[in-house]
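Inputs:
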Amino acid sequence: MQDEQIDAMAKLLKSMSHPIRLKILCLLQDKELSVGEIRAQVKTTNANISQHLNILRGQGIIDFRKDANFIYNRISDRRILELIKKMHNLFCPSL
Amino acid sequence: MQDEQIDAMAKLLKSMSHPIRLKILCLLQDKELSVGEIRAQVKTTNANISQHLNILRGQGIIDFRKDANFIYNRISDRRILELIKKMHNLFCPSL
DNA sequence: GTTGTATTTCATCTTTTAATGTAATAGTTG
DNA sequence: CAACTATTACATTAAAAGATGAAATACAAC
């Protein structure tokens, strides 16, 4: 890996390496969820969720669609799904 | 994944998500290296390298052996090797 | 248009992380 | 033991990330 790729990869990992964001990604593994549905599972404020979602969006990890006044989020990069799956296999093989 | 596992995983990812630390891990993929050898490839100070190594050690990602006044570092967790390999495949398939 | 719900933006504060320089430690060689 | 090399520890500073609360936006329903 060249330095530029390492930097990009580090940035990607960093965006995944916050407990709230990692949890959001896990929740979004198999379905899309609105902000409110996410907040119900992640114990923090709406504003905080929103900020974390923005980080994931900025990184291109997730995107969203609007429906009425709900915003449904989903993982937009298949590689992230694979990476999460791999981490799961490696570090939580029993589940 | 339960919350505790998510927290642990996030912590692990965080320790890998700094460009210098990720580069160190890449360098250590196939061989052990002394602090000086690492510093030669990562452009920063000795003290800084040392601090980053400490973070990786604290996380149990790498360990080291002493020989004379050199300290040789290596990746001690096979799962980290696999994870790096997977990231490589997913995000830099051309290399 | 007013009310209500969902989400975001903004500003601020706090906490954490990273970098830097210097001093200290450990080991080697003469 | 003096001089030297490699590495770490410590203290300080600088920078970035995270949380919080209040205000703003967007849409829907009445």
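Residues 34-36, 46-47, 49-51, 53-54, 68-71 of chain B lie near DNA strand D (CB under 10 Å from a C1'). Flag for discussion at group meeting.
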